[in-house]
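chain below, 161 aa
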Amino acid sequence: MSSTDKLQIERVLSATDEARALIGELEAVLSAEYTPEQRHGLALDAIFQPHVRFFLARLDGTAVGCGGVALYPDFAEVKRMYVHHTARGQGVADALLERIEQEVRSAGLSMLRLETGDRQIAAMRLYVRAGFRECPAFGDYALMPPQSIATSVFYEKRIGA
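prediction:
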């Protein structure tokens, strides 16, 4: 049995203990690397709004990753992607990103964007491998003071309709 046979992606509609734990781990990682003004992740309660779809990845039944997508009128934005260090290299992030792209297509949107930090080397490799290209700051990021996005890297990908 391959690791993908043991990997499941499920939508979560509320802040479960597993979702809280994964977002907490992500926050700990990011707070060690970036100042508060340079961290732009959604707060836990903002993840479970009507325009956001949030997913947990389970490997052998254990929640090991998460990721969401915020749906706006003219684009979608990847939010809160994270894979626990013990599950990296097993296709979890790829599966989450694939599920997010399915959600974007289902919503009738064709542009998927994201912001990540310049120290998130593995994340940037993932996004480039998945077909994302660097782009200028977009949406609310474009209105932020330069110091707030000094460590930000922006990506976008056109999703086939």
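The CA atoms of residues 78 and 114 lie 5 Å apart. The chain has one domain: 3-158.
thats it, cya
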